[in-house]
Design brief:
alpha+beta; Elongation Factor Tu (Ef-tu), domain 3; globular; single chain; six-stranded mixed β-sheet; 8 helices; 361 residues; Gyrase A, domain 2
Length: 361
């Protein structure tokens, strides 16, 4: 199957983007270097093209009932202009996907889903639509740009009359950027350094991207690839679908019990409530290496007596902390903060310690 192309692919290549296949799209993995791009977001401002993400509209008087049934969080108090983090759950309490829910209008919501799960999520939602909700896949019509970092507000404020101070964290507005109307300006992101995500109709995607790049020159704006996106989210302890969460991990095990609202019934809620009340056998932990090394997905985790207790799900050399960090599942009894563990890096046992997330503060 042919890879899909981002509308701004020519610009990515012109900016020096090293391209690779990701979730069916030809995506930039880096432009200059992962380290430089990571530091640009932490200290200044960067732009990501995340147009591969999926977007579904759920509309009608029963839209709220469908979303309440398929997702773990409670949207009953979600106001128009607000965003909520949640997950789609399966019957055994596993995570079908982690999602963002936008309340666009009284009876109209937008779900933002992971690119690799667009087809799976679409089928799952429609299979469980026992309500008269209208579900529409608009993924092919929307481009998404994330402007992240301490200077993101100053940069975007140059381009819009909308007062960005009126958009607090996990809120959004429809507004103009330059001459283009009806853009969703959302105070969300995946980096931990603040910023915005812009949802733009495809017909304006190239115009908006180029305008941000042009206006960004005076802010030393850097384009950011997938490699830095991964290290930025890992430093915050944010889960990546397919690594740290999947159909066989529960939100309780992944430390996401805060997005499970048991005052309502949703798919898998009874199993998750039992887990919440009775305890879990495994738990997602964050760890930092105490000696040189880089942990990677799939490496074995041992206790101090070299008994196998778990597996690494994400790992990297942290650019901000200059040491190896990672996430992984271990037996619950071995999940206490401060506990010493061992990461098997190839044939070498490397000392590590469980630490409280996030890694970067």
């Amino acid at each position: 199957m042919d890879m899909k192309k981002l509308l701004n692919e020519k610009s990515h290549i012109a900016l020096g983007g090293k391209m690779m296949s990701f979730s069916g799209y030809n995506m930039p993995v880096w432009y200059s270097s992962m380290m430089e791009e990571h530091n640009a977001v932490r200290n200044n401002v960067g732009i990501f093209d995340v147009s591969h993400m999926g977007e579904f509209l759920i509309k009608g008087h029963e839209a709220i009932n469908l979303i309440q049934y398929i997702s773990s969080n409670n949207i009953s108090n979600l106001k128009i202009g607000k965003v909520q983090y949640s997950c789609l759950t399966n019957k055994k309490g596993g995570i079908v996907d982690d999602i963002l829910v936008y309340r666009l209008e009284q009876n109209k919501y937008m779900l933002v889903v992971n690119a690799s799960n667009i087809k799976k999520d679409w089928n799952w939602i429609n299979k469980n639509n026992k309500f008269n909700a209208i579900v529409e896949n608009i993924s092919e019509n929307i481009s998404v740009f994330a402007i992240q970092g301490p200077q993101s507000k100053s940069l975007l404020q140059k381009m819009t009359k909308c007062d960005l101070n009126d958009i607090p964290y996990y809120s959004f507005q429809f507004d103009k950027l330059g001459d283009v109307s009806n853009i969703i300006i959302s105070a969300t992101g995946y980096t931990g350094s603040g910023g915005y995500e812009l949802y733009v109709e495809n017909k304006y995607a190239v115009i908006i991207w180029n305008k941000i790049i042009e206006n960004g020159k005076s802010f030393d704006l850097k384009p950011i690839g997938l490699a830095a996106r991964d290290t930025l989210r890992l430093e915050m302890g944010y889960c990546l679908y397919g690594n740290d969460i999947d159909d066989n991990t529960s939100p309780i095990e992944a430390g996401l019990s805060w997005i499970c609202k048991f005052q309502k019934k949703f798919i898998g809620s009874e199993r998750l409530l039992r887990q919440f009340n009775s305890g879990i056998e495994k738990k997602l932990i964050g760890f930092a290496l105490l000696e040189k090394g880089i942990p990677r997905k799939g490496y074995t985790i041992l206790d101090e007596n070299e008994n196998r207790i778990g597996i690494v799900t994400s790992g990297a050399l942290s650019p901000s902390l200059s040491k190896g960090i990672g996430l992984g599942y271990v037996k619950f009894k071995n999940s206490n903060v401060g506990e010493k563990i061992i990461i098997q890096i190839r044939s070498k046992n490397t000392s590590a310690v469980i630490i409280k997330l996030p890694f970067y503060k």
